[in-house]
Amino acid sequence: MRSVTPMAGAYVLLTAGAGAFCAAPAFSPGTSWPAVALLACVYVGCGLAGRGPRGMGTFYPVLLAGAFLLPPSAAALVAVPGALLGQVEQRPKWLRRAWRAAQLAVAVWASAQVFGALGGPDAVSGPRFPYALVPGGAAVLAFCAVLTLLDGGILAAAERVPLRGAWRGLFLRCLAPVAVHGLAGLMMAVLWTSSYGPVAALLVVLPMCISCWVFAQYQRERSAHQATIRALVQAVDIKDGYTRGHSERVGQASMMIARELGMPDERAEVLRFAGILHDVGKLGVPTRLLRKDGPLTPEERKVIELHPEYGHEMVRGIGFLGEARAAILHHHERLDGSGYPYGLVGTEIPEFARVVAVADAFDAMTSTRTYSRARPVPVAVAELERCAGTQFDPVMVGALVRALDREGWHPMVTADETGGVPGARAEAVPLRGASAR
């Protein structure tokens, strides 16, 4: 939700209305307010302990314990104070807080409904604890399903993500962590209803809070990595106006290929870094060559062709880049051995470099520059397929083509937004017959 479109605003208000409807019955007589207040306070405290650079963490064990212990309407209220007190960086903050509170309230309500319908409360409070695993598992599935449904909807409404891809992968990414948290929440519920009472139940929270704190440290480290990437890209942007936007789009296309190839998320993220930083070596190339309007002389071409090696030297000591460093060095190699800097052949070229080469050429062809108009995506795809097997890895070309057929091409940064300087030229991975820069 970078900006609030009318559709996104309406979607948030609709979700907030649903959350209010779910919680409204709790305000009738009979609600155990001390239990609601205690769980809400624990949720706030655990969320603050796990707060990362993007605000308060979401501590699902407490929310799911509320779903296992309380009536659905009361359980829906447990998440509200923590969500409303959560730190939000992007505006409008009040709308983002309201969205999170409503989303969690509806998800917890649905989870409690499923748990109660399957006899979970009796299994938790009695000697039949193992039988609580079945309704507990069903409640976790319901919780994940509601979060997925609402998250996909807001992506489609606020971020304009195509409907075909808005929900893709959300449920599976949500299920694993929530399942672990659900087991902890079930343990809390069992201890809460035992002779030991709520104090014993809260002991389950301590190791979970520690794990959330550790995860928050990881998030801070990841944010530091992102800041390093941004600083390097901004430095290149200042030097070569064409690279601005191009780097982000190459990272985006590289991620599309990675997902199509089934790469794990960790490798895919490093590959995105490779795409974003593939031209960082241009910092070592004289600006006059990058912005030259006329053709390059053979000597000038040799200087520009040094930029992969410059880039590799610049990032050599950045450990978190991993395989991305090889991609920065070898993204101008060609399958037939006619590339540079080392003339590697076939699978001698690192996998990441073969991915970035395809993504780089694709964006070079589909971007408008000062001296050439963007080619339509089908034309660029046809050219990639023509050069597959000689210049590009056919596997990587095929992966990009399949991803484009399914998702289309929706670049995050368009050529019109780059603010490129006059004379800024394409980088040195053009297709055969094009000007190498």
From TrEMBL:
GO terms for molecular function: hydrolase activity. It is an enzyme of class 3 (hydrolase). The keyword Transmembrane applies. The chain crosses the membrane at residues 61-86, 98-118, 138-158, 170-192, 198-216. Keywords: Hydrolase, Membrane, Transmembrane, Transmembrane helix. InterPro entries: Cyclic_di-GMP/3'3'-cGAMP_PDE, HD/PDEase_dom, HD_domain, HD_GYP_dom, HDIG_dom. This is HD-GYP domain-containing protein. It comes from Streptomyces tabacisoli.
